[in-house]
TrEMBL record:
<feature type="region of interest" description="Disordered">
    <location>
        <begin position="17"/>
        <end position="37"/>
    </location>
</feature>
<dbReference type="Pfam" id="PF03480">
    <property type="entry name" value="DctP"/>
</dbReference>
<dbReference type="GO" id="GO:0030246">
    <property type="term" value="F:carbohydrate binding"/>
</dbReference>
<dbReference type="GO" id="GO:0030288">
    <property type="term" value="C:outer membrane-bounded periplasmic space"/>
</dbReference>
<dbReference type="InterPro" id="IPR038404">
    <property type="entry name" value="TRAP_DctP_sf"/>
</dbReference>
<keyword id="KW-0732">Signal</keyword>
<dbReference type="InterPro" id="IPR018389">
    <property type="entry name" value="DctP_fam"/>
</dbReference>
<protein>
    <submittedName>
        <fullName>TRAP transporter substrate-binding protein</fullName>
    </submittedName>
</protein>
<dbReference type="InterPro" id="IPR004682">
    <property type="entry name" value="TRAP_DctP"/>
</dbReference>
<dbReference type="GO" id="GO:0055085">
    <property type="term" value="P:transmembrane transport"/>
</dbReference>
Amino acid sequence: MLAFTVACGGEEINVETEEASGEDDESLDAEEVEGDNPDAQTLRISVGINEQHPLYDSAIHFGELLTERTDDFNVEVYHSAQIAADLVATEMVQNGDLDITITSTSPVMNIIPEYGVFDLPFVIPDEEVADEVLDGEFGDQMLDILEDQDLVGLAWWENGFRNLTNDVRPIESIDDLEGLTLRTMETDIHLDAWSEMGANPTPMSFDELYTGLQQGTIEGQENPYPIINLEGYHEVQQYLSGTNHVYTPYIFLFSKQIWDELTPEQQDAIAESAYEAREYNREITRDVAEDSLEELQNNMEFSEITDEEFERFQEAVEPVIENHSATIGEDTVNDFLSAVEEASD
Ligand code: TK8
């Protein structure tokens, strides 16, 4: 059992996980991508979402690309936080106890405050801008700062634009949010944003979310369409709103301690495979997002947010950038806003 505490929303959250011992644990369900080399080194990847989600498939695709490039490695992909939920998995990668995790950037802000920049709401307007910002100088700069924290950031993959679900009423206007209890990721910025919008948010690790919704501990949550659909939140939530309030990247994190033991050729093979799999990941994630929305519209009551209402949401969260600039770092916030502006032209 691995346990530690993170501070979020002025409260301490206890994070616990059953640490998986890996290879020989028959109780774990993983996809193995293997070459012919019996002496190959096994790289374990942990993802928090389930095996239906395009992230899992993309991680397997990474394994295929890597084993085509070299027979030095096998890859094992573990889904559904079997090894650990995002934040703990990231800590394990830092400590050299796990090779790779592909996580939302949001929990990473508990380790590297600059990573909160991606949580500022209503900044990235569409996927084209997201790609340009992440693939450009700003994205590189954000990858570079990981190294001081014993992490090697290899590629930006996609979680996507987040949308709101709940089980109380249709949310069409910001006024409808009043008092709604919402799960947010473990980031102060999302907590603050939803408080500014009038809801009653609470931070929770992703692996507790379905049960929280099912048991009614919380009334709503927000995630991209593929997650809402493939994790089955429509089974326990009736209403869906197209809020598109923030874009969450997935980041491919490799353990620096393990990385430093590899040869430059091995490092290149891994880096190139992670980078190459990015295109595949974005493509399938976007396809699945479209299909997921269609399916969700059949299973939930869907509300579009009118342009007028969208502006009211945006106005309500204006203080959030100012409130969190000092924590994230003024320079990082300004670089991010400039990169988005440039990409939007
Ligand atoms: C899955 C999480 C998830 C995130 C969340 O591991 O916690 O709501 O959107 O994707 O990273």
